[in-house]
Amino acid sequence: MRIGVPKEIKNNENRVAITPAGVATLSGAGHEVYIQSGAGTGSGFTDSVYEQAGAQMLDEASQVWATADMVLKVKEPLPSEYGYFREGLILFTYLHLAAEPKLAAALIEHKVIGIAYETVEVNRTLPLLTPMSEVAGRMASQIGAQFLESPHGGKGILLSGVPGVKKGKVTIIGGGVVGTNAAKMAIGLGADVTIMDLNPDRLRQLEDIFGSSIQTLISNPYNIAEAVAASDLVIGAVLIPGAKAPKLVTEAMVQSMSPSSVIVDVAIDQGGIVETIDRITTHNEPTYMKHGVVHYAVANMPGAVPRTSTMALTNATLPYVVQIANQGLRVALESNPALKLGVNTAAGRMTYAAVARDLGYTHVDVNEALVETFAALS
Ligand SMILES: NC(=O)C1=CN([C@@H]2O[C@H](COP(=O)(O)OP(=O)(O)OC[C@H]3O[C@@H](n4cnc5c(N)ncnc54)[C@H](O)[C@@H]3O)[C@@H](O)[C@H]2O)C=CC1
Ligand SMILES: CC(=O)C(=O)O
């Protein structure tokens, strides 16, 4: 198979979808790997290291997309990349389609086989989302602590407090991978930490993990309103796989926060859980003020720590890439139900139910769409 890896073009996105070790594995198995020149620089991988591992470097993104049977990326394609789509192209990357209706329409129009990292699912876990959620969760508390400092627009609170002075209050809404990792760091920073989740069993597990260093609280509008009003830092960490995030923190709740408090909405890649977050921000301009509260809504947080993130992401993605390349897509999907759950678009159809519901498409069973796809390609 010909595998292409273009350079990421999102603001400050320095991750890359393959490492030299991945190239060596694929080229050792007889595949051709085409990488855009400079794609690995931000993650510390030079063109020559990729070449030594067996890749062929191409100058232009257009060459990579046109040559490849399967394109590997990190972030969802941006509008300037939609022109590269073509029928039967396999695109393996984060897609977050519930929050990206134009991208969904372009994938459907061009009959791209869009496999989303974030919906590949094994035993109710999301193995290709988990490593980046670990990174973003840990970053969320660090970033929140930074933006609570006065020079960054915050209220001038040190989360740990000091002897004789209260700790800062952190509320984490969503106790999954992001929430757990945000809690680890917030506890480490010495904050007063509350974690909320809908699932009482998850709250039991969190209490087993963290003991008395956290307060757990069931997630409902009443409890969220009380916790948000009392918080210095609120972290959004909710996910309903594939679906648009529910707006759990209302405008009135944001207005109830004390001036220069901070919200870090990690769930922004699925649309965000905060009503007053109406835009995605970038690493260049990560925050804006609304109702006197600092809002942070960067959708590619791990892009800021690319050396850690690229390794963590590709450790998880490479086995799936190798399976698709070695077996071909049809056999790989037949033999790996986890991977099949990643297929969001095929044959011009929307094959992931939660995305279809949120964007108003008819949901077509993935098996049916794949029969059409493979018939069209044969
Ligand atoms: N902004 C960024 O750069 C990044 C964003 N993310 C995003 O962070 C979000 C969270 O991801 P994970 O922690 O991996 O998901 P997860 O599936 O591990 O955890 C989500 C948690 O939300 C809980 N939940 C669902 N509905 C809820 C509600 N109404 N109230 C409270 N809790 C509720 C679930 O029970 C679950 O425990 C996702 O949208 C993910 O894509 C992940 C990595 C990077
Ligand atoms: C999960 C995701 O969207 C990211 O790592 O950027």
TrEMBL record:
Pathway: Amino-acid degradation; L-alanine degradation via dehydrogenase pathway; NH(3) and pyruvate from L-alanine: step 1/1. It is an enzyme of class 1 (oxidoreductase). It catalyses: L-alanine + NAD(+) + H2O = pyruvate + NH4(+) + NADH + H(+). Keywords: NAD, Nucleotide-binding, Oxidoreductase. GO terms for biological process: L-alanine catabolic process. GO terms for cellular component: plasma membrane. One of its GO terms (molecular function) is nucleotide binding. Substrate binds at R15, K75. InterPro entries: Ala_DH, Ala_DH/PNT_CS2, AlaDH/PNT_CS1, AlaDH/PNT_N, AlaDH/PNT_NAD(H)-bd, NAD(P)-bd_dom_sf. The active site is at H96 (proton donor/acceptor), D269 (proton donor/acceptor). PANTHER family: ALANINE DEHYDROGENASE. NCBIfam families: alaDH. Belongs to the AlaDH/PNT family. This is Alanine dehydrogenase. It comes from Paenibacillus nuruki. The lineage of its organism: Bacteria, Bacillati, Bacillota, Bacilli, Bacillales.
